[in-house]
Amino acid sequence: MQTKFKRHQRVKILRSPDPEYVEYYGVEVPIVKGMNGKINILLPNGKYHVEILDKKGNTLAYAPFEEEDLEGVD
Q1: Distance between CA atoms of residues 66 and 60, nearest Å
Q2: CB-based contacts of 69: which residues, under 8 Å, 6+ apart?
Q3: d(CA 28, CA 19)
Q4: Which structural domain range is residue 38 located in?
Q5: Residue 72 bridge partners (DSSP)
Q6: HSE of 42 in the Cβ direction (CA atoms, 13 Å)?
Q7: Can you tell me whether residue 21 is helix, strand or coil?
Q8: How confident is the model at residue 1 (pLDDT cuts 50, 70, 90)?
Q9: How many domains would you assign to the chain?
Q10: Is there a domain that residue 42 lies in?
């Protein structure tokens, strides 16, 4: 299976995730497009499990995303 992103690669979120599937890590902050994240794992259904980060790099939540919903960040 050819994937666009690798584990621990930094990404930018291009759409808000489905709130039903968001796993918050502490305070429940709204997850919106434009936030940064880091690829955690590739799920068996082909989606990416993404660790969503705040501006300081602290973990806010985890959520699944399709490949088209993410953009690589240098």
Answers
A1: 19
A2: 13, 14, 15
A3: 11
A4: 10-72
A5: 11
A6: 10
A7: helix
A8: low
A9: 1
A10: yes
